[in-house]
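Checklist before submission:
- one chain only
- standard amino acids only
- sequence pasted in full

Submission:
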Amino acid sequence: MSNGARHGLGVLTGLVVTPVIALCLMYSTTKFTDYFRYFFTRGGEDRWIGAALVLVAAVLVGLAAGSRLSPLASLIPGAAYTAIGVLWLASPRFAVEHSGRDLLGRHLYQGYTTLAPYGIFLLLGVALLVASLAPSRWKARTAAGPRYGGPPPAPMGPPPMHGGQAPMGAPQPPPAPGQSPSWQGAPQYGQQPSSPRPSRPVEENRSEPPAGRGSDDEPPGEWTQMYGGNRPT
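Returned file contents:
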């Protein structure tokens, strides 16, 4: 994903989670207030509804502040909540008069007027703004993988002498036809290299007289050549 597409997705995420987080917090605050005010006469359904809404808001805040998303996903709600918190601190009368009671309704208005004066929106907004300041979230993510098609790594050590063994990491030349690879004849660890055996002199072929040949120089007959021995008389 390109860096522009990532920031566009972050803007969309920020615009969606900003009202959803605020609505969950305001409605859950009203439910918790009603439960603790009327817990003797009512059941405990209000607290479980409020707890579920708080968990939803917490999950959305964590996703917006996560490092995988664009920082705009946390910058947009952080700027909105910070502006609301500063407004209630700088001009509380104006904030109360323009709190939108008719627009929000009883449940949301009660939660809004409970959270905003105590700085809850200011706390949440500053936390999201700080999460957006990380430089690593603004940079494009590049996959740091091996570069294929590059040159092979340089061999280790000096170049080998003529007829010597190639250094570590260098490609080994293929053995000649009828010759075993160089690693088969190398001595193992703890063994002494064996000295070459002297070649034995080739003995001269001494012709021996064939069996059945007499002392005379006449060649043996056909019977002797075929069956050996003396021919029966």
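Reviewer check: The CA atoms of residues 69 and 165 lie 54 Å apart.
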